[in-house]
Design the sequence.
């Protein structure tokens, strides 16, 4: 069972907000004792997701939590937007697929960088993406 | 708006990114740098990213773009100072930064640039040889 220890909501409405978000995540990750490589992976993943949220949904909210499961500690991030949603998630998770002009690495790359990745999207309602990076994962 | 300074040093342009990058800042750096290369006839560009704790797919793409654009303008680009954790993350993300020269630090980057370019002074001596 995953128990949240500490939570904080960060609003992402403009590009500069992503820098604030990165710093908050770094603080949280440092508190769990996460190593630098895992921290970098987590923050990079968050940066990708925050960009997606800004580009495709005009912004949204991020819940930053320190969580624990058994003896493992980690950071859980929940990205929630009320944008157009993703019609074909399987397609969006493919390397090199993009409806924008990007490289199409955002979603599949993010999944590779984190321990757990969950995406839920309803077209017309919005998208919720939850990622967890365990301290040693 | 924030701006990243571009320093001119002989035939090279020097950029040290000290602030946290966000997308628009990275894009304006790309535009400024390419403008500067064309304006100053620079033969090499050195970008120091040692202060960057992360490089994501967008920033990686901008770095790749800068290198390709400068290449067309006859300038070589070297990226220096990447943190090990950033390198690990970039490869796992799927970004290989193909076509971008890299070096461990500014000093080595400068050496690499010097070997990559033929300085104009040598060019003129060549021309003299031909005219003689």
Sequence:
């Amino acid at each position: 069972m995953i128990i949240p220890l500490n939570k904080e909501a960060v609003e992402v409405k403009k590009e500069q907000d992503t820098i604030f978000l990165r710093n908050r995540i770094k603080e949280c990750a440092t508190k769990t004792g996460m190593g630098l490589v895992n921290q970098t992976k987590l923050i990079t993943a968050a940066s990708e997701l925050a960009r997606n949220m800004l580009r495709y949904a005009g912004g949204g909210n991020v819940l930053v939590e320190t969580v624990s499961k058994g003896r493992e500690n980690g950071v859980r991030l929940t990205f929630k937007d009320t944008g157009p949603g993703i019609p074909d998630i399987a397609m969006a998770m493919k390397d090199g697929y993009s409806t924008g002009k990007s490289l199409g690495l955002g979603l599949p790359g993010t999944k590779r960088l984190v321990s757990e990745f969950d995406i839920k999207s309803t077209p017309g309602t919005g998208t919720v993406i939850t990622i967890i990076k365990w301290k040693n994962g | 708006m924030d701006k990243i300074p571009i320093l001119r040093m002989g035939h090279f342009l020097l950029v040290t990114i000290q602030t946290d990058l966000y997308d628009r800042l990275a894009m304006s750096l790309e535009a400024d740098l390419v403008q500067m290369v064309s304006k100053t006839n620079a033969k090499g560009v050195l970008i120091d990213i040692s202060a960057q704790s992360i490089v994501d797919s967008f920033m990686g793409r901008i770095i790749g773009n800068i290198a390709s654009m400068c290449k067309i303008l006859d300038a070589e680009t070297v990226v220096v100072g990447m943190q090990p954790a950033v390198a690990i993350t970039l490869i796992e993300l799927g970004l290989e930064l193909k076509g971008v020269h890299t070096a461990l630090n500014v000093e080595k980057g400068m050496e690499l640039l010097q070997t990559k370019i033929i300085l104009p002074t040598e060019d003129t001596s060549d021309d003299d040889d031909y005219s003689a």
